């Protein structure tokens, strides 16, 4: 699992929307005392009002996507891109390269700091063709009905919006085929933790 002269081991955690990727990342991080690079946090930083990527997104989608505080209204932007593949591609062409660059910069610094393990929590790992950044990939899966339930309850999306959000990503069945390890997050948290521990045992013995 070595890359070049660095001893750092990079584990990417991905899956579908609302499958529990962040939960699995936190469990694994606590077991390994590993640093987490959160792609969603990077996107949030890139979209701070006035930043270069923010300007590009506003230029592309118009000022109607902005809230009064000038932050992008994610619900309105979501309505623009989910269900319209051409609009989604426009956003991805703006955001994905910047996220990839940011992640690579963070990994470079963590290598310099001699971290042994790094976890990258990245929902669109395969969609953005970024799997090569990782030594091993964990895909977190969950039944579609639970994904929809979470999106409607937590994200306050309509049934149609939730469906569009799930359908915008590569199907979980395809992600599983590309995974080194799979964590089934359909049960209780204790069962998920057990699977993460089993995965960690395998990771340490690769």
Short description:
The chain has 206 residues and is α/β, with parallel strands linked by helices.
Written overview of the protein:
With 206 residues, the protein is an alpha/beta fold. It has a single domain (9-204), classed as 3-Layer(aba) Sandwich (Rossmann fold). It contains nine helices and five strands. The protein has helices spanning 21-32, 39-46, 52-61, 74-81, 85-112, 144-153, 159-167, 172-177, 189-204; strands at residues 9-15, 35-38, 117-121, 136-141, 181-184. It has a five-stranded parallel sheet with strand order 2-3-1-4-5, with helices on both faces. Mean pLDDT is 94; it is low at 1-5.
Outline, from the CA principal axes?
globular
Domain unit count: 1
**Ends: how far apart?**
7 Å
Could you list the spans in which at least 5 consecutive residues all have pLDDT below 50?
1-5
Main beta-sheet annotation: 5 strands, parallel
- Under CATH at level 1, the class stands as Alpha Beta
Q: Beta fraction of the residues?
A: 5-15%
Biggest sheet strand line-up: 2-3-1-4-5
Mind telling me the C-alpha Rg? 17 Å
In helices, the fraction of residues equals: 40-55%
N-to-C SSE string, H for helix and E for strand: EHEHHHHEEHHHEH
Mean of pLDDT: 94
CATH homologous superfamily designation: P-loop containing nucleotide triphosphate hydrolases
| Number of DSSP helical runs | 9
CATH topology: Rossmann fold
Structural class: alpha/beta
